[in-house]
Amino acid sequence: MEFAITAVAVMTIMFTAIQATTWFWARSIALAAAQEGANAQRAYNAAPGAGLTKANAFITSTGDGLNDSTVTVTGDAQQVQVTVTGRCLSVIPGFCNAIPVNATAHGTVERVTSP
After folding, report:
1. Residue pLDDT, tens place only, 54-97
2. Measured distance CA(26)–CA(47) in Å, rounded
3. Suppose 33 and one of 55, 75, 87, 105 were both cysteines; which one would form an S-S bond, judging by CB atoms 3.0 to 4.6 Å apart?
4. Residues facing residue 72 across a β-bridge
């Protein structure tokens, strides 16, 4: 009887730790994709959509760590901001829907200025 109670507690802790790990992994992917997209879009004379393409390519290259991802690139002539949202892999049903993954990166657009 003691083993049954202890086993349930240990399994709960173990699955919670695994779920937290998948969330942090997805968050790392989202942040790295946002940074890649921001760096690509803020480059000197970057083509429109370069950041979106680079961020999506990065997410695709990482595998299944970030699901249902959406990349949004906004900015003007001086600033660019890339936001990546998505969901982590689900070990505990409903967890990934309740706690989505969001990451944002921004930077200054490279341009020639007068001294």
Report:
1. 999 999 999 889 999 999 999 888 999 999 999 999 888 888 88
2. 28
3. 55
4. 83
**Locus of tokens 């968050």:** 27
Are 26 and 101 contacting, i.e. CB atoms less than 8 angstroms apart? yes
Beta-sheet strand order (sheet of 79-87): 67-75, 79-87, 101-108
Distance CA 23, CA 113 (A): 42
Q: 1-18: per-residue pLDDT in tens? A: 788 889 999 999 999 999
User: pTM of the predicted model, to two decimals?
Assistant: 0.88
Contacts (Cβ under 8 Å, ≥6 apart) of 31: 84, 103, 105
- The residue ranges of every structural domain in the chain are 2-108
